[in-house]
Amino acid sequence: MVELTLPPDSRVNKNGLVYRAPEGAKKPRTFRIYRFDPDSGENPRVDSYEIDMAACGPMVLDALIKIKNEIDPTLSFRRSCREGICGSCAMNIDGVNTLACTRACEDITGSEVRIYPLPHMPVVKDLVPDLTQFYAQYAAVKPWLETRTPAPPDRERYQSKEDQEKIDRPSACILCACCSTSCPSYWWNSDRYLGPAALLAAYRWIIDSRDESTGERLDALEDPFRLYRCHTIMNCTEACPKDLNPAKAIGEIKKMMVSRQH
Amino acid sequence: MARKPLSPHLSHYRFAYTMATSILHRLTGLALSVGLIVLACWLTAVSQGEAAYQRFASGPVSALLRVLLALWLIAFVYHLANGIRHLCWDAGWGFERAQARRSARIVIVSVVIVAALLIWAFFFRGAR
Hints:
By secondary structure, chain A is an alpha/beta fold.
């Protein structure tokens, strides 16, 4: 359901703690970061950290790690590969979903860098959202090869170069959830709409030339909510940090739904 | 189970052309649905003869209707233009980021031009 405002226990206190830059900072910059402590019983708040960019790495993730190491060890966020391949550090930076490790602080216009968790998600702590439902939706599209025919005894199931190229880009999805949590349709109907990430995964298996349950996969998506809550807003494609195109994948699925009836 | 607040969404996400064109399509569709009811009333009045029609065609009701009609005209042109954009998407065309941005710009520019021309043609050209 559409709920434009946050529930009372989720409203954000914009005047949280303020950490000033150290004396003699050459390039001070303010990071305003969403904080939520599940043990405090208090509402989320926004803390301000002034850090010296002259003594900090270029990416937003570098700044977060610097804050955690040097200023406030209680700050929680997910991170791992720091090169845009694990998808752990997905968050809302400067109003847009992206990966903290591939977003340069320098590219953010405006004096302050605002860092929030992925939108419309249950927050476990600070910048860590609960992705349980997101992963369940991924599992729901059966993201594995389904076959009826027996596998060739002496080799793998081959596929042509052209057929491989069809799944090449969709396979590059890192499941960071930037797309799904940027989608207003997903915000209002994530309990029934699968969202762009899961649908991109579904598309990747639907068009796989080796997969033999294309019809069943389409049947499973033939639903007013699961697929058709996509209204081609295009936030997903705009948000994807891997330059993939979930909106186009969903459009292709919709086309297949129509063309298979004729 | 610990409490998990909902992270900020609509109020926080940067408002971009994507959301603007989408919500405008909905709002104009809604406005046109309401307009259809008024159009039905107007046609009914026409069919009931001159006296009934005069209530529409003169006085403050007429002035209000003219303003609304102009707004509905803009809504109609936008809904039509963006509807064509959606039809292109349904046919599988225009999903690349650059294309979607360009088509949004084309829609906005053409709405301004076409709506201005229509309003001029309907309300000012033949003004007595």
